[in-house]
Amino acid sequence: MKGMTSIIIPSYNGLSLLQDAIGAIRRYTDSNETPYEIIVVDNGSADGTCKWCIREGIPCLSLARNTGFPFACNRGLRMARGEYLMLLNNDVTVSAGWLPALIRALTARADIGMVGPVTNYVSGRQQVDYPFSSMEEFHGQAATALVQEAKRSEPIMRLVGFCMLFKRSLYERIGELDERFTPGHYEDDDYCFRARMHGYCLLMCRDVFVHHRGSASFKRSNPQEVQQLVERNRQHFISKWKVDPAKFMY
User: Fold this and answer.
1) Alpha-carbon dihedral sign for residues 121, 127, 133, 135
2) Whole-angstrom Cα Rg for the chain
3) What is the 8-class DSSP label of residue 70?
4) pTM of the prediction?
5) Which of 66, 179, 192, 250 matches a 20 to 30 Å C-alpha distance to 155?
6) Which keywords does this chain's UniProt record carry (predicted)?
């Protein structure tokens, strides 16, 4: 649907996070000015995620088991109707003016294929050090950034998939996330790499500051196992592209 953004949120046993994320989207996004739809992909949760979504009137694709981030995103993308497509983690809190600013950057030129915000917690250049000690102070910092950094964006080699907006035309050209990176890590690096190979520019939007708790799905896992997964997927990337993804991180 022209002008609409499809916001795809995978979730696994993170109902409280999801409720906060969707609450912020609803509060800080004017659907009349910036139409959007939310699609939740439930990765086999046992916490009532789908029942809550049904009560809230939110489309929810219920998967039988935890299939990981790339698989869940791909299933959500297939359901999406929007001209613009967003992958959003369930532990992200958006802020006032976030979506119009991202869309403005995305549509500024034909060659821009993907944009992302800055945040308090992420790997690479998108992390910024804005001081805050409460969510109220976070929203204050976000409001300041929206004004002081208005329309300021920078070319970037990779965007992290915690909050990533891209054009449907890009999706139709380069396809889905590569599920070899399941359950997660480096699927976003791979997607950005493919986008750049097809001639698209990626932008980091300085005027959009969102809150990210960070690695909510993996914090429940054994740290050693997570590190092994990260290294395994890094090797998958190197094997596929013959380049170390760390080259594009900073």
Assistant:
1) negative
2) 17
3) H
4) 0.95
5) 179
6) Glycosyltransferase, Transferase
